[in-house]
């Protein structure tokens, strides 16, 4: 019998349950997938704690890789035996499982050059990095970025991609160990926000100018420092709220700090168009397959250890990518 992690009420990691589940035959437009590896993402905690409300009980996880077991009527993008990976949002919820039914449309065929574990660690993070690097801003060589959580899964990919584009990368981390990881993956300068003034240090490193773009996945605790780190007419990209939601503010604040631009993007809107998704997937797979971007899987968990995995994630004990191995 298949296994899955489910939860019946919103709350802390302790609400997660590892259970037997029945997996039926795929209906029209569906595929049955046998998972090999499952991605662990910070967004999973938002579903679990109620930040992203969903009907309960429900499964968890939106990213995994595996093999197609069967397909339903009308499915023509994959066939049984295909190696696949996927990521999404509500439409792929339920990835914390050994086997499942899923809409076939989000499935991405996986080239032999990319292992299942690598795919589970990078599909969401990699595609997020792809749209940040290739769609959010028309980067030019010599421009600079401030990257919060530089030693995290997205941070390590963005750092490497940014160097391919000729950018200067200033990363923020919370410890000396994470600083070394960030430097090893392309950060030119690293700021330890636990004891350094981020904005002041950025100004110092940029001769008072500020950076062209800030990628801020932390939210409440770093928002003002991020704005203060930008050059005049710079771009603030809010890509997460790990420390909590950003408090409401008067947009005139952006004018006062240099006519700044601000965006709060979501991956779903950058992969909604099949052609655009295919282009981003192709570029990501090429970089990873050719070794230009390394995917660091620094934490491996068993699916039944989902409670501990979430505790580690929220305690900032993880670096790089984390996966469940089936």
TrEMBL record:
By its UniProt entry, which PANTHER family does this protein fall under?
QUINONE OXIDOREDUCTASE PIG3-RELATED (PTHR48106), QUINONE OXIDOREDUCTASE-RELATED (PTHR48106:SF13)
Per its record, the protein catalyses: 2 a quinone + NADPH + H(+) = 2 a 1,4-benzosemiquinone + NADP(+)
- Name of the protein this chain belongs to: NADPH:quinone reductase
EC assignment: the record states 1.6.5.5
- GO terms for cellular component: cytosol
SUPFAM superfamilies, sorted: GroES-like, NAD(P)-binding Rossmann-fold domains
Where is each Enoyl reductase (ER) domain found?
11-324
Coiled-coil residue spans: none
TM region positions: none
Q: Which organism is it from?
A: Pseudomonas panipatensis
Question: Is Hydrolase set as a keyword in this record?
Answer: no
Tell me where on the tree of life, at the top rank, the source sits. Answer: Bacteria
The family classification in the record reads: Belongs to the zinc-containing alcohol dehydrogenase family. Quinone oxidoreductase subfamily.
Under the heading SMART domains, the entry gives:
PKS_ER
Enzyme's top EC category: oxidoreductase
Gene Ontology molecular-function annotations: mRNA 3'-UTR AU-rich region binding; NADPH binding; quinone reductase (NADPH) activity; zinc ion binding
Q: Which UniProt keywords apply?
A: NADP, Oxidoreductase
